[in-house]
Amino acid sequence: MKKRVSITDIARALNVTPSTVSRALNGGHKISEKTRKKIIDLAAELGYRPNPFAKSLLYNKTYNIGLVIPEFTHHFFNKVLNGIESVTYERGYHLIICTSDNLYEKEKKSCQTLLDARVDGMVATVANNSQSFEHYKDIIDAGVPLVLIDRICEDIETNYVITDDFEGARQAVEHLISTDCRKIIYIKGPDSISTTFNRYMGYVEALKKHNIPLNEELVLASDDDLPKKLRALLQEKKVDAIFAFSDYLAYDALKVIREEGLSVPEDISVIGYADEPIATYLSPALSTVQQPAFDIGRIGASFIMDRIDKGSSAEQDFFTEYLPTKLVLRASTKKPV
Q1: Per DSSP, what are the bridge partners of residue 271?
Q2: Alpha carbon 90 to its chain's center
Q3: Which segments of the chain does DSSP mark as H helices, in order?
Q4: What would you measure as the largest C-alpha separation in the chain, in angstroms?
């Protein structure tokens, strides 16, 4: 096994002190350019790599950022990850990534693991069924900068970067109304997360604006009974449009619509949410609400970097950054009348 080259090895080879080598490799002063060049050239020749643990002790930083997200399978979180890495990579930081699988105990353990790893900051999305948020409060109490993305938790006083789900949902439902739809289903997401409520309120506001009474029978939970309940409404001809919490729920709705022998959008219009790749592959292609996932990650990571640069003792004003959505219209909806 090849021995790792150390600063001491370089110092011994050039007959200088280890502190001189350290200054040369870290851009320090009080060293001639001739000596600096000799040290850097030899370090490259020998394949020297800095010891990350020594570096973290020297600067009181690990140069690691923790990330906790529910899953990787959704395109949305992949784009969020890309946005975060676009910032951390340029700033010389590394990501330690944990997934909660939307499980409270796994989320809690992930947060503790990242704290034990002494990350310099953390970005996270709260899991669907979190029972308590003490593990996030522990992060804040430890002086580690934290930003929560995509979902808001009123129990945690920190900074948030989210999309304007209320407005995104309102625009989607208003488009359906503009195509002469009046009996519009909303298929909800998990009740425990803020995005479900915000999209529901956007749905309600659009109906209210156009004097359409809210019918709670048309608000469906995304549980195992969804196909049965949706099929019953379709058979009773009580529906002319569906607005779904996600593109995947919209896909489930499309399957039931086809099974009932109905056409999209001639009989039923459908709009999803998030603009996952599946939206373009469906037939007909799915109208949806596009979220700026990359920018969510980028802005969240930029905040963390700025907090690290300022230090934990700096005063902080908490904020919530709302990013706009975009309605993407495809073949699953009609044109306005």
Answers
A1: 243, 287
A2: 19
A3: 7-14, 18-25, 33-46, 52-59, 75-88, 104-116, 134-141, 165-178, 194-209, 226-235, 247-259, 278-281, 293-310
A4: 89
Q: Residue 90 CB: number of other CB atoms within 10 A?
A: 10
* Residue where the block lists tokens 């002086």: 143
Model confidence at 59, pLDDT cuts 50, 70, 90, reads: low
* The two three-digit tokens of residue 115, written as one number: 């704290």
Which three-class secondary structure state does DSSP give residue 220? strand
d(CA 269, CA 183): 11
pLDDT digits (tens, 9 = 90+) for 189-245: 998 899 999 999 999 999 999 999 999 999 999 999 999 999 999 998 889 999 999
Residues 129-182 pLDDT 10s: 777 889 999 999 999 999 999 999 888 899 999 999 999 999 999 999 999 999
Looking at the DSSP bridge assignments, the partners of residue 244 are 187
Task: Please tell me the distance from the alpha carbon of residue 272 to that of residue 294, in angstroms, as a whole number.
Answer: 19
Q: Which two tokens stand for residue 258?
A: 């086809």
The CA distance from 42 to 27, in Å, is 16
Distance CA 168, CA 195 (A): 11
Cα of first residue to Cα of last residue in the chain, in angstroms, is 74
pLDDT tens sequence across 72-109: 878 899 999 999 999 999 998 999 999 999 899 999 99
Cβ proximity of 122 and 139 under 8 Å:
yes
Cis? peptide before 18, omega within 30° of 0: no
Which residues have a Cβ under 8 Å from the Cβ of 176 and sit 6 or more positions away? 184, 241, 243, 269, 271, 333
Q: CA torsion angle for 79, 108, 93, 89 (degrees, to 10)?
A: -10
